[in-house]
Specification:
two-stranded antiparallel ribbon; alpha/beta; 49% helix; 2-enoyl-CoA Hydratase, Chain A, domain 1; seven-stranded mixed sheet
């Protein structure tokens, strides 16, 4: 009676092969998992570096660690609004060629739920400031602005361009007529051109806030408040009482409001 059909050596080899193959698979799986983990860590590191770069260079980031499952893009408007000419390197500036494409990307993105704008600006180029303000006001997503420090000159249209606006109690807003640098030709057409620019600014503010045309124009042309200039300065609650800003509040109020607006939009 035959008990084995194969020689002993062949049986041993076959058994050895059966044991070794799973070991090789396990070793291969470990190597693949290790490579995958390294690639994932590399992607996470690159995303963190990109996020830090956006904050340091453009003052922008995405807030996504709150209790709500919302992604809110944070945009800061600081220093001087830079127009078609570059300002000196020691000036802190907001460059419209950086902001406009970012606003278009926010509108097009399905990941971003809303936009929070932090404003601390001395004003700047009228055309560039109005371009940013028009882009913000035309976004379909909820937008909230928060004035910190100051929102002067063309910063006023930027502050009211959001769907809802806040100002901290110590922040100021300076409203004054349009100024022009360089050569000015002393003819009637120059002053008519100034008047048209001012009308564009006034109409934008009036259409995006609660103040009326004549009241805002009176603030712009007031000769009693500023010692070396024409215009008005409003501090915190004064801007709310005049109907320019919606409410006095800080960052917690702004974040609560934009989350409420996002929830309301999703509910609809």
């Amino acid at each position: 009676m035959q008990k084995n059909l194969m020689p002993p050596n062949e049986i041993k080899n076959e058994t050895s092969q059966k044991i070794n193959i799973p070991k090789q698979n396990r070793r291969g799986n470990k190597e693949e998992n290790s490579q995958e983990n390294q690639e994932n860590e590399k992607v996470i590191k690159e995303n963190e570096d990109l996020k830090d770069q956006k904050i340091s260079e453009y003052g922008q980031t995405v807030l996504e660690n709150g209790t709500k499952d919302h992604k809110i893009h944070l945009l800061s408007v600081i220093g001087e609004i830079e127009g078609h000419e570059c300002l000196p390197q020691h000036n802190k500036t907001t460059k419209y060629e950086h902001v406009l494409p970012q606003l278009a990307a926010i509108e097009d993105s399905t990941d971003i739920d809303g936009l929070l704008i932090l404003i601390n600006t001395v004003g700047g180029d009228v055309e560039a400031g109005l371009a940013i303000a028009e882009m913000i006001s035309s976004l379909s997503k909820p937008t909230v602005s928060l004035v910190l420090g100051g929102s002067h000159s063309i910063g006023v249209p930027l502050a009211v361009s959001a769907s809802y606006s806040y100002i901290v109690p110590s922040a100021t807003m300076i409203i004054h007529p349009v100024r022009m640098n360089g050569t000015v030709i002393g003819v009637t057409q120059t002053f008519e051109y100034f008047e048209k620019i001012q009308d564009r600014i006034i109409n934008f503010v009036v259409n995006h806030s609660k103040i009326d045309y004549n009241s805002f124009r009176d603030l712009m042309l007031d000769t009693h408040q500023l010692a070396k200039d024409v215009g008005s300065i409003l501090v915190g609650d004064e801007a709310v009482k005049k109907g320019i800003i919606d409410e006095v509040g800080g960052i917690k109020d702004a974040l609560r409001k934009i989350n409420e607006m996002i929830d309301a939009g999703k509910g609809e």
